């Protein structure tokens, strides 16, 4: 491939948002350059969603082996072969990576590997080569964050990046941060046999989820003997002969083999020429409007680089939105409340829409129902506990109106939230969903049962 050149669109960053934009733009006949410093697929494919969920599946298999006697099946659990788990994990990543490369090639997208930086409002420089475009899309993603004075050494004090490459099961671990990343790692390591404690400065795990979901997850983690220190701040860490010693506010000290720092991810934007070329930014994030347009007319930005939910599927949607806008379609802003979220722990936590607390903050009067999985045949078969909570706007006559939020807890409930997304985004009311027939026995019935209850006609549930 010739060095440099002119394109309709130059995309800087080959992660979820960047490659989605490139793929969709190519469908409009656009000539696209996709610049990536590492591997296409970005954090999600190589250091996030996919490898993490592979570990979680291995953890599910481990739990099934250990608990098989509950189902009358005799097995022997001999332990975890960590290198073999990593091999399985990498095989999943490699297969998807090869498929993505093939798809990009099939759409005739020029993939340029190297460290790129914005050289002007219409160009990106990679080494000595300059790639110009009628439009530039910034999609440089994010990296794990730390706290002031907390040094990541990659061995005893690690981030999720090192955690995914760990070739052993730590005997014990302290996880700093009770968000999605921290909760998922806690679930994996506990299933693998580690002694795990989560430290979260806010009063609940998964602070962005509904309080009811968090309480159920916390109860489940107590049953699994996963420790939690909630509403307490981290103060310091020191290395010991066997690992680390972590001091918390109030003087309590915890010791473990490793400390996983899972306090969120920050945007990759420093030193890339953004501000020098007029791109407005706030705390490292690129400022955009509802259509992902930056302060520079020829530049858009998507994914973890902007201050929207840090989810791969959000990156996909934003990348597609930009490509369709540049392709001449009439696009509309994304309703981020309507984006489904899943934490793939055991049990899983899934949601779409707003929480009860958010409804109160917005001055919205609601009716809600919390349907327990104990009333669902498939969930009893699976021996899982949890619930389906549905929040609806209260009509003036006291009946339930438009559904505002759906919050699920239990094994495999992440697979159900796509229906929740349709209910929320199509402004459905409980009466609409109650008229649908859900197959029996499936966990999907919890969606129907909860909406039946809100519509005033519960079946297997005393509302």
Looking at the structure, the CATH topology of the largest domain is FAD/NAD(P)-binding domain
Structural class: alpha/beta
Tell me, rounded to a whole number, the average pLDDT.
Answer: 96
Oligomer: single chain
CATH superfamily of the largest domain: FAD/NAD(P)-binding domain
Provide the CATH architecture of the largest domain.
Answer: 3-Layer(bba) Sandwich
How is the biggest beta sheet arranged? 7 strands, mixed
The amount of beta strand, in percent, is 25-35%
Name the poorly predicted regions. Answer: none
Number of helices: 13
As a percent range, the share of helical residues equals 25-40%
The N- to C-terminal Cα distance equals: 66 Å
Broad CATH class of the largest domain: Alpha Beta
Shape: globular
Radius of gyration: 24 Å
How would you describe the overall organization of this protein?
- It is a single chain.
- The chain has helices at 16-27, 42-47, 49-66, 82-106, 160-163, 180-192, 211-223, 312-326, 356-361, 377-382, 417-425, 430-434, 445-454, and strands at 5-12, 32-36, 110-113, 116-120, 123-126, 129-138, 142-144, 157-158, 172-176, 195-200, 227-230, 234-239, 244-248, 253-256, 258-261, 265-267, 281-282, 285-286, 299-301, 341-343, 348-353, 366-372, 387-394, 400-410.
- By secondary structure, the chain is α/β, with parallel strands linked by helices.
- The chain has three domains: 5-143 and 266-326, 3-Layer(bba) Sandwich (FAD/NAD(P)-binding domain); 157-263, FAD/NAD(P)-binding domain; 347-454, FAD/NAD-linked reductase, C-terminal dimerisation domain (Enolase-like, domain 1).
- The strands form six sheets. Strands 1, 2, 3, 4, 5, 6 and 19 form a seven-stranded mixed sheet that branches. A five-stranded parallel sheet has the order 8-15-9-10-11.
- The longest helix is centred in the first third of the chain and has 25 residues, at 82-106.
- It is globular and about 65 Å long.
């Amino acid at each position: 491939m010739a060095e440099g050149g002119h394109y309709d669109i130059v995309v800087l960053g080959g992660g979820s948002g960047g490659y989605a934009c490139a793929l969709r733009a190519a469908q409009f006949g656009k000539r696209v350059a996709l610049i990536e410093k590492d591997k296409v697929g970005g954090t999600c494919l190589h250091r996030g969603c996919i490898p993490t969920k592979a570990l979680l599946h291995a953890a599910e298999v481990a739990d099934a082996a250990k608990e098989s006697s509950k189902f009358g099946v005799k097995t022997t659990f001999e332990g975890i072969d960590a290198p073999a788990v990593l091999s399985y994990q990498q095989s999943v990543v490699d297969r998807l990576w090869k498929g993505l490369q093939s798809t990009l090639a099939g759409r005739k997208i020029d993939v340029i590997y190297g460290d790129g930086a914005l050289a002007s409002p219409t160009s990106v420089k990679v080494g000595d080569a300059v790639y110009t475009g009628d439009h530039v899309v910034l999609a440089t993603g994010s990296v794990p964050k730390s706290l002031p004075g907390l040094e990541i050494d990659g061995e005893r004090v690690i981030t999720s990046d090192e955690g995914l490459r760990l070739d052993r099961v730590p005997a014990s671990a302290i996880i700093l941060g009770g968000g999605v990343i921290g909760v998922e790692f806690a679930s994996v390591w506990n299933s693998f046999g580690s002694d795990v404690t989560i430290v979260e400065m806010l009063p609940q795990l998964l602070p962005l989820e509904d309080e009811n979901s968090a309480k159920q997850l916390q109860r489940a983690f107590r049953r699994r003997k996963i420790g939690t220190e909630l509403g307490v701040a981290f103060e310091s860490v020191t290395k010991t002969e066997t690992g680390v010693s972590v001091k918390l506010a109030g003087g309590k000290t915890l010791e473990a083999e490793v400390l996983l720092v899972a306090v969120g991810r920050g945007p990759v934007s420093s030193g890339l020429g953004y501000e020098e070329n007029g791109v407005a930014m706030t705390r490292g994030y690129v400022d955009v409007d509802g259509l992902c347009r930056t302060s520079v007319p020829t530049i858009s930005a998507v994914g973890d680089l902007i201050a929207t939910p840090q989810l791969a599927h959000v990156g996909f949607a934003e990348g597609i939105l930009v490509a369709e806008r540049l392709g001449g379609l009439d696009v509309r802003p994304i309703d981020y409340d309507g984006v489904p979220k899943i934490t793939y722990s055991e049990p899983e936590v899934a949601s779409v829409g707003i929480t009860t607390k958010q409804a109160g903050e917005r001055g919205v009067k609601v009716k809600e129902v919390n349907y327990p999985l104990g009333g669902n045949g498939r969930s009893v078969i699976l021996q899982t506990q949890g619930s389906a909570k549905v929040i609806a706007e209260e009509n003036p006559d006291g009946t339930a109106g438009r559904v505002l939020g759906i919050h699920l807890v239990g094994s495999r409930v992440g697979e159900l939230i796509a229906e929740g997304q349709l209910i929320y985004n199509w402004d459905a009311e409980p009466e609409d969903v109650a008229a649908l027939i859900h197959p029996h026995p499936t966990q999907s019935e919890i969606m129907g049962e909860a909406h039946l209850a809100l519509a005033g006609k519960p079946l297997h549930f005393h509302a």
